[in-house]
Amino acid sequence: MFNNNNNKLVFNKLIEEIQGTFLERVISKYNGDFRSQHFDTKSHLYALLYSNFMNCKSLRELQTQISHNNKLKRIINIPSVSQFSRKNASRDSRIFEDIFYYLISKAKSRFGEYKLIKDFPPLRIIDSSVIVTALKLAPSLKFDYEKSVMKISTMFNGEYPERINIVKGNINDRKCIDNMFRDKDCIYVFDRGYYDYRWYDQLTESGFKFVTREVKNSIVMEEKFLDSNINKDIYDTEVIMGSTPGGNLTFNKYREIMCFYDNDEVITFITNIFDLSKEDIINIYKKRWEIELFFKWIKQNLRIKKFIGYNENAVRIQIFSALITYMLIYLFCKKQHSKVKYSILIVTRIIRSNLLEIYYRGIINLSG
């Protein structure tokens, strides 16, 4: 599919992370090219990556750009819009999922464990975001009487997502994240939407550390006052939560850290970590905002905000293609020895301007 005239394009430089025997194996594993005489899996993948790099607004815009650009036509077998739609609906989305996790493993092996706070255990921030469309366009993904929704549950380490679960929007948040808890040497951070006292006990008894917000009107029984900072109006207490033994009463003890602010707002944190200061716990929870910034970034810069297909498989392919694009840009940023958080938007804009230009060292120049 490639020839010497295209091997040094910026686009090819980016996607070389996923070329070679790995890509051949994953396509073969899921029989991705079965009955695909023209629009094969590589063309499908590269077209969607190009769409994300260039932020194409629709399949028709993407198909038009490919069919009218000689450089792209040498890289991608041109599909019709209907072919594109059919393959989004039917080609196994696990191909794209495996490619995403392959890039995650590359990032970990090259750069090691990312620590969002120096000298602290790694943080794993958990939250979900949704993609919404009209019910009449995707009835199989029905959420309520007027819209269809897909939910992206994400575990984020501060630089990139380490685990992704994509489910229909009506699946309870708590049920989407159990397989994300694997590493006992990190701290999990999640908001109060995931609260479940029995689950807190399960995490604690399994050796997982967490920090979360307490829900309003929760039932908490003080066991022991631990500490306070009167100047900052912060109070630290050992508690058990719930109301009835055998019901939702916790078997383990937790820390309740309560902060009072000038506007009479009270924010309360719950954790099973007893060997960090109350200020450290508050600072850890504040880092939860990083995942909100990540969701905002991918929705603004990649093709993830609107459906390009209307069944679950098509949406999964769309989401994993966007995440693959993010990881390709991330790995490129890290090669430049740049701070990803501050440079990834600039790099994305430069890539967008130079995607089909000949690559040379220095073409992506962060110094301007």
Q: How does this structure look, described?
A:
α6 packs across α11 (312-335). The chain has helices spanning 10-15, 21-29, 41-54, 59-67, 70-75, 81-90, 94-111, 197-205, 278-286, 289-301, 312-335, 340-354, and strands at 123-134, 147-156, 161-168, 187-190, 209-213, 220-229, 234-241, 254-260, 266-271. The radius of gyration is 23 Å and the shape is elongated. The protein contains 12 helices and 9 strands. Residues 1-5 have low confidence and may be disordered. It is an alpha+beta fold. It has a 9-stranded mixed beta sheet with strand order 3-2-1-4-5-9-8-7-6, sandwiched between helices. Among the domains are: 10-107 and 310-354, no CATH class; 209-287, no CATH class.
What is the H/E order? Answer: HHHHHHHEEEEHEEEEEHHHH
Class from secondary-structure proportions: alpha+beta
The number of helical elements comes to 12
Q: Give the mean pLDDT.
A: 89
The helix content is: 25-40%
How big is the Rg? 23 Å
Write a brief caption for the model.
The protein is α+β, with helices and mostly antiparallel strands and 368 residues long.
